[in-house]
Specification:
Blueprint: H1 3-25, E1 40-55, E2 58-59, E3 65-71, E4 73-89, E5 93-114, E6 122-143, E7 151-171, E8 181-201, E9 206-221, E10 235-251
Antiparallel strand pairs: 1-4, 1-10, 2-3, 3-5, 4-5, 5-6, 6-7, 7-8, 8-9, 9-10
Length: 252
């Protein structure tokens, strides 16, 4: 199955999951009361992200355009934290408004540079390195279930991603000229994430979370300058899919 179909399936899953939650949420007599602590909630997160870092062609001059033949996927650890405030609380559902912060490092796209878009000119290794920190305003819908041991939730939000990108390549066979090294550049981009999962109560004030999350962290540009000056900067797209565990403390 190709990557495009995988992304489409994930989007269909998210739509189906959230739609199911809304339907279940309004069947109020079906479920027992909430077992998750209610109040302002502080959270710590850790997880694993599969990051897709796409990069376009490198335009060095009017005469030379190179393409990249590499691996755009990398698996990295994700760390974060958040705070959430309930603003609608009913017997079978709670809606929370909150703020999440997540950080990812060393998201790499590596491979070969094909000069002039020609396989015969396969002369360089490249490495694109991205770091991303995002701050997201979130809206979370929690729903009780027939089971006392967990609740289900859907969550999404929009905010700002601060993405830092650097690039370098080196010749496969050493040459006096060496390769291209571009300066790091910081980009501020609109970002969003969406997902869902389960809450598991451990005690009166402590609960755990396990969730799937898809995040679009924006389209941004590299620096044009370094040891040379490109005609145009590299254009980078960053998307992630993550499995995240969390520990939550609720101030009752």
């Amino acid at each position: 199955m190709d990557c495009g179909k995988i992304v489409q399936l994930h989007r269909l899953y998210i739509i189906f999951f959230i739609s199911s939650l809304f339907v279940l949420g309004y069947q109020k007599n079906t479920f027992a009361a909430h077992n998750i602590p209610s109040g302002t909630t502080l959270s710590l997160y850790a997880g694993v992200s599969n990051a897709e870092t796409r990069v376009n062609r490198m335009i060095l001059s009017a005469l030379e355009t190179d393409i990249f033949n590499g691996d755009k996927y990398s698996n990295k650890y994700l760390l974060g934290g958040g705070v959430a405030f309930p603003y609608i609380q009913e017997k079978n559902r709670t809606i929370r408004f909150g703020l999440d912060i997540f950080h990812l490092e060393h998201l790499k796209n590596t491979g070969r540079v094909l000069q002039y878009d020609l396989p015969a000119f396969d002369n360089y290794h490249y490495k694109l390195d991205v770091k991303s920190t995002r701050v997201i305003l979130t809206n979370e819908w929690d729903f009780s279930t027939p089971f006392k041991h967990f609740e289900i939730f859907a969550k999404g939000g929009v905010g700002l991603a601060v993405n830092r990108v650097g690039y370098q390549d080196n010749p496969i066979t050493p040459t006096p000229d060496g390769g291209i090294h571009l300066s790091n550049k910081k980009n501020n981009e609109l970002a969003y994430d969406i997902g869902g999962g389960i809450h598991i109560p451990f005690s009166k004030n402590i609960s755990g979370t396990l969730q799937y999350q898809y995040a679009d962290l924006g389209d941004f540009e590299s620096s044009r300058s370094g040891n040379i000056v490109l005609l145009k900067p590299l254009h980078v797209k960053l998307r992630t899919q993550s499995i995240i565990a969390g520990i939550n403390y609720t101030i009752s």
